[in-house]
Amino acid sequence: MWQYTLFQFLIAFIPIWAMQVWLAHPGRVRHSPAVTGIACGLSMILAMLVAEHSHGNNLFFDMRLVPFLVGVFYGGIPTASILTVLYMAVRLTQVDQGIPLIMLALFFFLFIPYLFYKIIHFQTADRRGKMRIMLQSAIICLLFLAVEVANYFWTNRESAWESVEILAVGLIFGGMFLVLTLVSVYFIDDAYNKVKLQIDYRRISDRYDYEVQRLQHFIDSSPLAVVLIDKEGNISHLNELALKLLSPLTREDILHKPYRVSLVGWQCDFVLEATAKVMNGENRLADLCTIRNRLYYTTVSSWGDAPNLPPEGALLIAHDMTEIQQLKDEVNKMERLSLVGQMAASITHEIRNPMAVIRGFVQLLNERSTSEQNSYFHIILQELDRANGIINDFLSLAQNRIVEKNVSDLHSLLEDLLPLLQADANMRGQQIELSLCEQLDPLELNVKEIKQLVLNLARNGMEAMDDKGVLRIETHNLPDRIELRVTDNGVGIPPEKLERLFEPFYTTKTNGTGLGLALCLSIMERHNGKIHVVSKIGEGTTFIVTFCKPDCQCW
Question: In the chain, fewer beta carbons within 10 Å around the N or the C end?
């Protein structure tokens, strides 16, 4: 009988082995209730068959209730219902009338509802709570088995020695029953916990991969040039904007290469010096840096896995500030123009009145003086007229000036100015070339101001050329705007002077006032247009005046 008891003990391990094997892969967890039911049902049938075979040896102990309890609690209500029907169907063929049948009825009508009630608590409990519920259920099962065994031996009137032997086997069986119940909970719950850990690990890993991809997308799509440098001084990552700034180098040429070799193409000493300092312990350095003829606000900082650990490398971020700087320069120009306009408005009458008196007395003295002194008075009158012209330019720079605009043809305006420009060019020994496009849309212009603009630009071009220079004036009709280009073949303007060319009082001429181009800029502002310069040393300069067409959005 000992071998049959041990054999049943091994049979009761079938659900444990089956769940250990089945739950080795997390993807199978959704089918685990069905597998639990199959394994427990097979274990129950085998245990009952072995017990029935050993019944002839006056031993009626079996482990059928261990897989039954495991299947009920781990299989859920559907599996528990199937196992209950299977258990009752087999047991009804094994029990006789009398006490065994009464105990089976009590088992079905009292213990089974108790188990179904405990299933809900079991599924939400921790491991210790599950062991407590299984232990309580196992003890109740042992009570039912004890009554059946007592009734069996009371009926068969065994000898005293056989009774002692049965009592010893019963105690050993009961202990094995309880131990096997707790072991089943431990190993099956451990398998579920491993699956849960694997699922949580996979979910966290997927979440991590998703966050890494999202961060990568953010870095690549941001308007910042980003370069990551590891602690060995090699570039570990860079986004697309940084790669464009390092062209013609490819990503393969840059990644895992020393930053001192790759970043030298930026031609910015600050980047290399700041990176070296950050790699040696500095926390953060920032400065403006010119890269590929554009202005960047460059920040170099340390980065690491944790705040309290040593830095793992350097993070370089470059923000393109070119447009912001240009806008700032435009605002500064407008502020200067506004200041000049306010000055002009406040002092014009104070200057013009005494100048008018002086000019009148100079003319009177000129009439009463001898002819030898007429040249002196003529020089005085010329200088007074020049001073008056400067005052007029001051007045033209006032931003709050209201100009009247009419629909006009730019070609007609240029043709009206052509004789005056040619006369001025002939006196200098130069030529004027007028190249007009075939058709030009009408514009809303203040004819007087546009003539003044063209004259200023043309005379600036003539003054920049020698006596054989050619001044070219041309127009272009573009889809959304009209361009007027005034081109000379003079000496050109140095790049450092181009940035300040439209500032009031800034001039490259010996006798210039620095108001002509500032006046041109002010005129274009009032016409909602733009003016910019393209120049090459030794080749000449082109002033490009842009008018936005009506009902078009140019900028």
Answer: C
